[in-house]
Amino acid sequence: MGTLEPHPIRVPMPDSIRTKAIFHGTVQGVGFRAITRHQAGSFQVTGTVRNLPDGTVELIAEGSPDQVQRFIASVEEALRHRIEFVDRCDSQATDEFTTFQIT
């Protein structure tokens, strides 16, 4: 009988946060996701950005509070002419992501 390989368990860093931001405005079809992924490269964040069926864009970012807040502020600044408003919700990080990607 073979042995089972243990699966690594990811434990989020206690000071890490997860921010889910929904961007409203003219945010689809304007390079929003590509710009967001590019901006993520300047910060120590992981997560994802995707278009939602209702015309909004969802961004989920995890990292230190400072890095996540600065990252989202940079996205808001880079795309300020496209964004009408943002709904944000912060919670404990889940360590679900290893990179930042477009989904």
TrEMBL record:
Acylphosphatase-like domain residues: 18-103
Pfam families named among the record's database cross-references: Acylphosphatase
Reactions accelerated catalytically: an acyl phosphate + H2O = a carboxylate + phosphate + H(+)
Top class in the EC scheme: hydrolase
Keyword terms, alphabetized: Hydrolase
InterPro entries: Acylphosphatase, Acylphosphatase-like_dom, Acylphosphatase-like_dom_sf
Residues annotated as the enzyme's active site: R33, N51
Keyword Hydrolase found: yes
Gene3D superfamilies: 3.30.70.100
Record EC number: 3.6.1.7
Superkingdom of origin: Bacteria
Protein name: acylphosphatase
Gene expressing this chain: acyP
